[in-house]
Amino acid sequence: MTQVALDPVEYAVPAAFSERVAETAVSAAWRAGAIQLNHFRNTAVRCRRLPHDVKLEIDCLCENVIIAAIRESFSDHAILTEESGLLPGSGEYTSIIDPLDGTVNFWHGLPFFCVSIACYRNGGPAGSRTPPAGLPGTPVTGVVFLPSSQELFVGTPGRGALLNGRPIRASHAESASDAIVTVNFGKTPDTMRRMTGRLDVLLPQVRKARCLGAVAAELAYIAAGFLDGLIYEGIRLWDFAAGKIILEAAGGFLEAAETEPGQWRVLAGAQTIRDSLESVLTL
What we know:
Blueprint: E1 2-4, H1 15-39, E2 47-50, E3 53-56, H2 57-73, E4 78-81, E5 85-87, E6 93-101, H3 103-107, E7 114-121, E8 138-146, E9 151-156, E10 160-163, E11 166-168, E12 180-183, H4 189-202, E13 208-210, H5 215-223, E14 229-235, H6 237-249, E15 253-260, E16 263-269, H7 274-280
């Protein structure tokens, strides 16, 4: 298992460029969100069922409009997406997209799902034209949009995080006993057993545990102080790339470990309960 700190490389991305990237991502997220609302609770939506997961035609429709928006504004960006994989670019930036995070919720008519769009500058201080194979490089901006509640989260390093244009900060829960922590159970028997064991340790320590099923939205909610912590396993880079930027811009933390190629364990939350959450990962 590779344990990696997600600290950004120490050099600045120009503010004007970050603003352009954020504007493009916000516009793309609104377009994808409109598609989701138009098809939400529509029994005609086509679905491919997988063990403990589903794939919908809506994922691809949303991904296509997001890619088109990014390509229109930044034709040289590489794009890493859930549905299409890595689309190479000639520049030094990579956009990372989850067009519909919380697909199972969406399919079952549960109004907790989102669009997730992140942008990172590849490589080290001099930049690089090679998109990240594992972790991203320097964060530029992260956008998470929940269409059902019309909540738009935007995070930019050094400039803070916003919810519908208003500044937000991560929770300051004084102890784990004050915290609401979200978890997932993964898609494999081993992950399910491991997470169930962790709950035995976690539940007596916290106020409540929840399983909400849309990690990008949950990270954004932690950034706003609506939730306090998160423990997820067996997720992909696009699941947390935008939420990481928003949460860290709001003063929270996110630790990630690649437990196998392309599969990540993520621990995130308010700084005040970091030690308590880390103790759960000894299992």
